[in-house]
Amino acid sequence: MFKVYIAGPISADTVEAERANVERAMEIADQLVSFDIAVYLPHMSWFVDRHAERCGRKKLGYRYLKQDMEWILQCDAVFRMEGDSIGADKEVAFAVKNRIKVFVTINRLKKAAYDKKQEDVAAAKVNPSNFPDENPFSSNECSITIPVDPLSVQYKKVDHAKRMVEESVCVAAAEAHSQSTAKLPDFKVSEVVEYPSGARESKLNHRFDLIPLEGLKAVAEVAHYGATKYGVNNWKKGIPINSMLNHALRHVILFLSGDTTDDHLPHAAWRLLAAIDCLKMDPKPTKQEIPNGS
Length: 294
What we know:
The chain is α/β, with parallel strands linked by helices and about 290 residues long. The chain folds into two domains: about 5-180, Hypothetical protein PA1492 (Rossmann fold); about 210-280, no CATH class. Helix content is about 50%, strand content about 5%. The protein is built from nine helices and six strands; from the N terminus they run βαβααβαβααββααα. The chain has helices at about 15-35, 45-55, 60-75, 85-95, 105-120, 160-180, 215-230, 240-255, 265-280, and strands at about 5, 40, 75-80, 100-105, 190-195, 200. The strands form two sheets. Strands 2-1-3-4 form a four-stranded parallel β-sheet. Strand 5 (about 190-195) and strand 6 (about 200) form a beta hairpin. Helix 3 (about 60-75) runs parallel beside helix 4 (about 85-95) and helix 8 packs antiparallel against helix 9. It is extended, with a radius of gyration of 24 Å.
């Protein structure tokens, strides 16, 4: 059976808004379960927290995220609900890192479950009874309408075109991660060193211990900002190296001119690191024209 983890917002400014988030997730879960998809719904922990409050105990919400990651590893896919959520974003990033598919439209998720079921049927692993013989999906999916919460919390109708673009970013991120893990850094060692104590080990010609940690932290913050704005490993989809250098030089020049509207040096450093990585993957890159405004 196709297993899906539903990631989406829970926390909100009021209990009523939180309940609305949970009920939206329950509605989505109901649609998937009716299609013979096994669903893990982390939003149910909201009811556990309410029960804890009534009993005078401390809520355990902060612990659920760590436990939820274990459940994600057991699933075939993650469905990302619409709405801002730091926790859900972390869950999506975790799924991408572990090469678990991420979906943002119900019909495409159902189609993936359908295709998986057909593969299982072909392999004679499951009984195809109670499952449609023909693919029930059309290429043109309508927007998903979620019932409005009785507490009058209003939600925007899903913009199908926008969601398709978001999903393509998730898929591209997963592919980029797969490509990045396929080529690990080459830390060759050829010599053995011996210490006065008699201990011996391979000599490593890389001094990672000398990398400035504050600078590394600043670059990591830039990487987080870029992943949030453009998608994880978006740059690996093909940003030309001359554009990387162009952006790096821009940040250096702005820093030298006294501009303080951005953390220019960490941005420049990240661009240069990315350019080095591109050069390692393609020693003879083809210079590409940079679009106007880049």
